[in-house]
Amino acid sequence: MAGKKVSLPKGMRDFGPQQVRKRQYILDTIREVFEIFGYQPIETPVMEQLSTLNGKGGAESDKLLFKVLNSGDFLKKADENALNEKASSKVIAQISEKGLRYDLTVPLARYVVMHQNDITFPFKRYQMQPVWRADRPQKGRYREFWQCDADVLGSESLINEMELIQIFERVFKTFNIPVKVHLSSRKLLAGMMELIGQEDKMIDFTVALDKLDKIGVEKVQDELRARGLNEKAVELIPSIAALSSEKDVMKSSFIAALEKTSNGAEGVREINTIMSRLDFACRSIIIIDPSLARGLDYYTGPIFEVKSELFKGSIGSGGRYDNLTGIFGLPNVSGVGISFGLDRIYDLMQEQNLFPDFSAASTKVLLTYFDEEKLPPLFGIVSMMREANIKAELYPAPVKLKKQFKYANDKGIPYVVLYGDEEADSGEFTIKDMEKGEQFKMDFEKLLEFLKQ
Amino acid sequence: MAGKKVSLPKGMRDFGPQQVRKRQYILDTIREVFEIFGYQPIETPVMEQLSTLNGKGGAESDKLLFKVLNSGDFLKKADENALNEKASSKVIAQISEKGLRYDLTVPLARYVVMHQNDITFPFKRYQMQPVWRADRPQKGRYREFWQCDADVLGSESLINEMELIQIFERVFKTFNIPVKVHLSSRKLLAGMMELIGQEDKMIDFTVALDKLDKIGVEKVQDELRARGLNEKAVELIPSIAALSSEKDVMKSSFIAALEKTSNGAEGVREINTIMSRLDFACRSIIIIDPSLARGLDYYTGPIFEVKSELFKGSIGSGGRYDNLTGIFGLPNVSGVGISFGLDRIYDLMQEQNLFPDFSAASTKVLLTYFDEEKLPPLFGIVSMMREANIKAELYPAPVKLKKQFKYANDKGIPYVVLYGDEEADSGEFTIKDMEKGEQFKMDFEKLLEFLKQ
């Protein structure tokens, strides 16, 4: 084993001290805003029963599940014929009962059903934890990544949507990330289905429309035809694409036509209600975008997607769902939620140099140690500094000073203290400012005061 | 699927808002102390290669690994004969390449080897993350639990041991948990092996001795005989057990005898050096305990275990290891570390009512909503409160006031504000103190000031 090259599983990452601090900063900021809006934290286990996870995000997400092998003699219950045929898909359920969660929404639904008697509704919860997907890793896409979700369950009020948009606005303002919140409603899409007379084709229509940004009008039209949508549907696409240049989408002839359908009218009402209560700061970042589709099947009302000119891909999203907990036997619980992608926000802030300076978070002072006889006072001094909540280190061995200064430099420690015979005699410590290269002398009391600042 | 009973995997737990806050409090406290002592955070992925995890904690811990099934057609590479025989243990390595970490020490060793060129040694790192073991769940033992580790790698200095004991002392003092830190050295055990002339039997001796507390002198002696230890070894056990009643263990005849062996003398020197520098607060919680064995093979120097009269089982532990990274091809890196068990500390603090009051962390004020016409001002008011960093909620629908008060009560929200016609006319809000049951009236400016306190 010795000398064997070690590696991490594909798509997984280590985080060093600076990265952890920066990620913690993002998490703390989002947490603080969630709490100001009255959301409460929950946490769920990394593993869920596969019966909980399977089939909740469609066949595609089942394939992306990391499945955990049963303990012990796991082949015992496996079907012999399936093993002989090497029929992996038949064997899976016999050798694996658990999987790693691929989002925080399915665990939320499971949580609410299991704890329904202890929960006060409307249930405003936030959850910030990692999720796993066995996706093909690529730039900005990892197999282990964090989601930061806030959801309200058990309230149909659009006030929740208004507040969730305020949360987007406040979080990204704090990060100095300019964003646009694209807003629409699944009911506008349902209205379009009424217009073309193909109410049963909404998912096919949505899947194709979702690609408008990426593949353009004509290819979406091709895909619609291939998916069996009629020519009325195909003709809608140019009008939808043209909306992005409208001065006021809600006053466009497209919306006027949609308002004549029952679902469309409801969708328009939702959007108008949300907009009517928001202040200028929020309204100015909203783009009403009827082309917004959001891949997930479970959305039924208003939907959001947050984009920034500084980044390719969305950095936040969300929407309303009417029956999330129904799959687990608790029907009629309407909910709405949003999600922040920690890793994408991190990548964006890193690229754009948006992180504050974190040097204050690491060690403030290094006490050098070069005279063995001085260990007793030095150990007492570093202990007293720590008692005073100063982040302090004592170099653990009397090695060459050059090495100790290099240590301070590499770790970004701003001050280094020297304590040798001269200092012991005079009672004054020598302190070096590593950035400015200047040296001072001061007694212990002044030194403590100085370092506390 | 509808109506199907949902459940969590065995030994896994959900955490509700109050639990998350309390766990966060423990983590924050430990983190703060780690940072004051100059430790820097790292994080590693939940999954590691099985080649990294296997064989590092002995055959026992290999069995406790949760293994992740390879994606896609996982049976493709499996051996046909092994499948036919249902030989689970032969098939494992062919269908699973990844596993969930069972501690933070193996990932640390892997991290240090992979990032050795970017690390400044001595490397003082802390890591607080969950780990998984497919153990039989029982009271206080979970299959998903958190470890909070601090380690120094690349320094042989005993100053590190002194500081780690100071960390134990400070953390548990903050939690108001009375503890004793049991201190010994693996070198005392090596000295005992010299005394009995069976240097090759140290692991067998250690495994048996480790049970002294639980099974008593005679059963340990039986086990020693069964493991092939000689009668000299058997005779040591009563002397070791008797040490707990010594006034000063280091001045006992047992230690005097050990000091005549080369390893024993080294172990005595280690312990004396550590004790010599610690202040009274630390020395007073240390118990020199040569019966301390610590199960893990990799310890080579001083070892610690933290116990409390309030709890069965250890709530902290650690020790020095001389060659942790050697298994991954980086020899000669001495290290020492400690670990706090979040879940046990939580259980202890919960049982003993040691948590501070966390009501301040949740919503401070609920704005009731009972008159639809008042939504515009109410939404503006709650937004302004949040701008002022007051944790505020607006009830999202104009339902009966009784229901809104119940919501505030269930969530532990201390203040409820009423805003109806009377309040709109007078410009004064009615605010109710939920605990005292008292009501006041005040204008918006005073209300903001009041809630900010």
Outline the structure in words.
2 copies of one chain form a homodimer. The first copy, chain A, has 2 domains: 17-41 and 102-351, 2-Layer Sandwich (BirA Bifunctional Protein, domain 2); 362-452, 3-Layer(aba) Sandwich (Rossmann fold). In chain A, a hairpin with an 8-residue loop joins strand 9 (299-307) and strand 10 (316-321). In chain A, 42% of the residues lie in helices and 19% in strands. The longest helix of chain A is centred in the N-terminal third of the chain and has 20 residues, at 17-36. Chain A has an 8-stranded mixed sheet. A 5-stranded mixed sheet of chain A has the order 13-12-14-15-16. A 3-stranded antiparallel sheet of chain A has the order 2-4-3. Chain A is α+β, with helices and mostly antiparallel strands. Chain A starts with 16 loop residues before the first helix and ends with a helix. In chain A, helix 1 packs across helix 15. At the A-B interface, helix 1, strand 1, strand 2, strand 3 and helix 4 of A face helix 1, strand 1, strand 2, strand 3 and helix 4 of B.
